[in-house]
Amino acid sequence: MRTVVNIILVALLASSLSAVQAQASAAAPQRVEDKKCGEFSQAGRYDCFSKLHAKSTVSLKKAEAAALQKIAQWFENDRYKNIARTTMRSAGVAFVRYREAKCAFADSLRGGAIGNAHEISRLACLGAANTERALELKRYTDHFPPD
């Protein structure tokens, strides 16, 4: 009898967790880029995502430059500053490879989509990844002295 009660409790717990996860994913906000560009036709979406991708690329370059500048101002031994700069550049190269692979995978999930759908998907992914990386660099170097 005890085993049956335990099985029922586990089943109830699993079903309630599934319901909570379903509600959380349904309530999760769309990416900002999707909200900004989602109202356009396919051609308009392509133009919108192209602009957002270009803007995110500039933002990422600025974030990288700001991070390097903060490292240069870091009140730390030059040896550690050099290590930080080198590893940041290495991480940047790895990020580019990761971003390309991630966005290629996301695009592959579009299947036989027609028109600009594949390119729109790729641009949206690249823009989002750039934005995430820029925020990550800022978060890592926020504790450094101001510019």
From TrEMBL:
Residues 41-137 form the Lysozyme inhibitor LprI-like N-terminal domain. It comes from the Bacteria. Keywords: Signal. The keyword Signal applies. Residues 1-24 form the signal peptide. InterPro entries: LprI-like_N. This is DUF1311 domain-containing protein. The lineage of its organism: Bacteria, Pseudomonadati, Pseudomonadota, Betaproteobacteria, Burkholderiales.
